[in-house]
From TrEMBL:
InterPro entries: NADH_UbQ_OxRdtase_su1/FPO (IPR001694), NADH_UbQ_OxRdtase_su1_CS (IPR018086). It is an enzyme of class 7 (translocase). Its EC number is 7.1.1.-. NDH-1 is composed of 14 different subunits. Subunits NuoA, H, J, K, L, M, N constitute the membrane sector of the complex. It comes from Thermocrinis minervae. This is NADH-quinone oxidoreductase subunit H.
Length: 349
């Protein structure tokens, strides 16, 4: 009975910590993006609220909370509110299978810094990613607006296309690790002393392009297209509801998919990898904190890379996005998968 209570307490603590970090960091990533965009465009960005604008996200949150919550006259109120929940919950649940570091011990209790280490963790990620599109489709339908409906249908078409690509892209690392468990995939890379990005560069590039498409980032942001669709499927949302949609899609989803990319291709919490030689840890002086800092650094670099692309590339047309997925990326995933199946036994012989 005592062990059961201890396990429940550990799980509750993990849930609270993950939610607090994800939602808190997600809110402040809005400031990071505005600063990155400002420097790319040679301007200072937010500077007024707090030192160098550090309190700007709090001011934005207060503004959204105090705004009047309007509802479209001819919309479906139940589906209108349900859409927000269906967009937020799956994106957050992905972090349940993200391993943030190695196992450690506290007061004799062994703790894995992962909410649930299931042997089909990646299948859970794909299932949750597919569910998120239903929230966006409902948002467009329930708003009873042609602009919202067009934006949601564009998003649904893009997600269907790139879900297939991203699924086949990650099969390469899965074959190399021989497991669908995210924790096991990291452990295999550490045991084999090799990040899978060195063996799967094509899969990584395809994964990153698919991640941009699924999160509505440039050059695949035609579903929002502020200039022509006035933010697409969120056009009829106001106040805090309007703020939560971009928070989920542009920040929480990008963070979760970046974390999965680190797990699949960059050895999770492992330090710098020299191919077929081993690892080098310049942060050895941090001791037990070093693995967690490495994981954070990798996720941060991938997120900044996404921001750099977002503020430098032009937008694709919807037909170009679909053709790129089905005619270029999907065949490349088949080539990569076949090559991996043939050469993986040779590499690990």
């Amino acid at each position: 009975m005592d062990s059961l209570l201890i396990n429940l307490a550990v799980i509750l603590i993990k849930i609270v910590v993950i939610l607090a970090i994800v939602l808190g960091v997600g809110a402040y990533l809005t400031l990071v993006e505005r600063k990155v965009a400002a420097h790319i465009q040679r301007r200072p960005g937010p500077m007024v609220v707090g030192w160098h604008g550090l309190l700007q996200p709090l001011a934005d949150g207060l503004k959204l909370i105090t705004k009047e919550d309007l509802f479209p006259r001819y919309g479906n109120k139940f589906l209108y509110n349900l859409a927000l929940i269906m967009a937020l919950v799956p994106a957050t649940l992905v972090f349940a299978v993200v391993p943030f570091g190695p196992e450690f011990e506290v007061f004799g209790i062994k703790i894995k810094p992962i909410l649930t280490d299931v042997n089909v963790g990646l299948l859970l990620v794909f299932a949750l990613g597919s569910m998120a599109v239903y929230g966006i489709a409902l948002a467009g339908w329930a708003s009873n607006s042609k602009y919202a409906l067009i934006g949601s249908m564009r998003k649904a078409g893009i997600v269907v296309s790139y879900e297939v690509v991203i699924t086949f892209a990650v099969l390469g690392p899965i074959i190399l690790a021989g497991s669908l468990s995210t924790y096991e995939i990291v452990q295999k890379q550490i045991e084999q002393k090799l990040w899978y990005v060195w063996l799967q560069p094509l899969a990584f590039v395809l994964y990153m392009f698919s991640m941009l498409a699924e999160t509505g980032r440039v050059p695949f942001d035609v579903q929002e297209a502020e200039a022509e669709l006035v933010t697409g499927f969120t056009v009829e949302y106001g106040g805090m509801k309007f703020g939560l949609f971009p928070l989920v899609e542009w920040y929480v989803e990008v963070l979760s998919l970046s974390a999965i990319a680190v797990v699949l291709f960059f050895g999770g919490w492992s330090p710098i990898n020299i191919p077929f030689v081993g690892f080098v840890d310049p942060l050895f002086f941090l001791g037990p904190l070093s693995p967690y800092v490495w994981f954070l650094l990798k996720v941060t670099l991938l997120f900044l890379f996404v921001l750099w692309l977002h503020w430098t590339l032009p937008r694709y047309r919807i037909d170009q996005i679909a053709e790129t997925a089905w005619k270029i990326m999907l065949p490349l995933t088949f080539v990569n998968l076949a090559a991996t199946a043939v050469f993986a036994p040779i590499v690990w012989r």
